[in-house]
Amino acid sequence: MRRGGCAELESEIERGPEMRALTRLVAARSGQFLIPGTLANELDLSQPTVKRYLSLLEEVFLIKRIPAWSRNLRARAPCRDCDTSLPAERSAPERSQ
């Protein structure tokens, strides 16, 4: 895990609105396969950016990626999101201030 706190993580997020869109998309797919290429296409972002943003979400404990299990050790195993707090937070109506 990186050291430096939220300011360092925030500086790595180049496009805030796209990160929020990714967070909402991941929340909507809780428990499903997270394939960075598919997410990148849907959000019109590059795959490396999506991978980096997913890593950042994992670092701040918003998601936990769990590799899919297969008896075939050579099988490509996409990861799943398993955290249920993110979907609950993202599906709640936005609070007005």
Polypeptide structure, described:
Helices cover 51% and strands 8% of the residues. The protein is mostly helical and 97 residues long. The protein has a single domain, classed as Winged helix-like DNA-binding domain superfamily/Winged helix DNA-binding domain (Arc Repressor Mutant, subunit A, Orthogonal Bundle), CATH 1.10.10.10. Helix 2 crosses helix 5 (85-91) and helix 3 (36-43) crosses helix 4 (47-59). The radius of gyration is 14 Å and the shape is globular.
Concise account of the structure shown:
With about 100 residues, the chain is mainly alpha-helical.
CATH level-4 homologous superfamily? Winged helix-like DNA-binding domain superfamily/Winged helix DNA-binding domain
Secondary structure category: mainly alpha
Distance between the termini: 34 Å
Highest CATH level, the class? Mainly Alpha
Query: Could you say what the CATH architecture is?
Result: Orthogonal Bundle
**What's the helix count?**
5
Helix content: 40-55%
Q: Would you count the extended β strands for me?
A: 3
Report the order of strands and helices.
Answer: HHEHHEEH
Which regions contain 5 or more consecutive residues with pLDDT less than 50? none
| Spatial strand sequence of the major β-sheet | 1-3-2
Indicate the overall shape: globular
